[in-house]
Amino acid sequence: MIKVSAEDLGVIVSKIGDALMLHEKWKENFQRTLACKLQPPEADLSESAHEQCAFGHWLYSKGNAHLLSLPAFKTIEAMHREMHVKVRNLYEKRLTGHITAVEDYDTYLEAATAFRAALLNLKERVAFTLHNIDPLTGAYNQSQLLPELREEQQRQKETGGAYSLFLIDLDLRDINKHLGRSAGDKVLQAAIASVRQALSAKDRIYRLEGAEFVICLPGKNAADTEQLKELLLAKIGGAVSAITAKNEPTFKINYSIIELEPGAYLEELLDKAVRLSYTINL
Q1: May I ask the CATH architecture of the domain 140-281?
Q2: Which value, in Å, is the radius of gyration of the alpha carbons in the chain?
């Protein structure tokens, strides 16, 4: 699951692409300044140099506060800051008459290369996520479900282990009829966001079609999932009530739990799960 919108992801991909180009230009200017013994830019001598470069201006802008809470961006931020510290140290040593030591330069170069590699890797990961998520709910697209389950079946054959699927189908017909489709979309967003909060990092939610979702739960058997079900349904109910409390239209959830088996035909397994579904009114 993702915690930023598809629009945010598109902007991130674009900005990281720009950052990669700007990083190369900045790196070339630094190497030219150091080799030709030119006056270093004041910004690079500042302790806040990491905030003053083009990438820093974007990263630390008010609109990106939520990004800095994400682990991947925390790592990028730390690498970027450390790279600028090494550059400032090289400049300061040169300005005090010291010859640039090979080991000092190599340390900087290693940091700069690692930062660029991390940026490129992050861009590729964000681009992959952008093209494989549902923009409304942040759940993964259906196209990724069967490949993941096949990989899991292979792993089960090799090492065993539990793996369950929790299917939910949110019946939005009454909400759409009385409150409009925009309200139905809000309910869907809120419901899936509430489910996400109750899941672990290794769990995934896939949107099949309409308001049908499959929650993949590695490491959990049917009994484990049965216990988790109560929490997830309560989360969904709370999220829906927060939006529809004053109107109280009928809201139903169809759900089922099924364990993944190494030799099962996946299409038949999912069909079976739909046929065995239960209905709860919230």
Answers
A1: 2-Layer Sandwich (3.30)
A2: 25
Annotated domain spans of the chain: 6-130, 140-281
Q: How far apart are the first and last CA of the chain?
A: 25
Taking the C-alpha atoms of residue 74 and residue 68, their distance in angstroms, rounded to an integer, is 6
For 199, the token pair is: 């899941």
Q: Looking at the predicted structure, is the pLDDT value of residue 90 above 90?
A: yes
Q: How confident is the model at residue 278 (pLDDT cuts 50, 70, 90)?
A: low
pLDDT digits (tens, 9 = 90+) for 99-140: 899 999 999 999 999 999 999 998 888 887 777 888 788 888
pTM above 0.85, yes or no: no
Is CATH 3.40.309.10 correct for 6-130? no
Distances 140 to 92, 137, 144, 183, 191 between C-alpha atoms, Å: 49, 9, 7, 22, 15
